[in-house]
Specification:
Structural class: mainly alpha
Number of helices: 2
Distance between the termini: 36 Å
Order of helices and strands: HH
Shape: elongated
Low-confidence stretches: none
Helix content: 25-40%
Mean pLDDT: 77
Protein name: Peptidase
Largest sheet: none
Number of domains: 1
Number of strands: 0
Strand content: under 5%
Length: about 70
């Protein structure tokens, strides 16, 4: 089963301290779409990437992956 907790809820169960919130950059990964119950505030609609730009991103990522080998 999948459960998402707010910071305050997590603080009750785990040894953590909730501090002030931070503004962070959005994630362009599809990582959160793999969960069934992801809060809508976590999953923002991604703007559509033009196919040319997407292909360029893939080429760059492939080159980086090859460098890691």
């Amino acid at each position: 089963a999948e459960t998402w907790l707010s910071g305050e809820e997590a603080e009750k169960y785990f040894n953590i301290e909730v501090v002030e919130e931070k503004e962070v950059a959005a994630c362009s990964s599809d990582y959160f779409y793999k969960y069934q119950k992801t809060p809508s505030k976590v999953v923002a609609k991604n703007p559509s990437i033009p196919k040319k730009d997407h292909n360029e991103q893939l080429k760059i990522q492939n080159a980086l992956d090859l460098l890691e080998l």
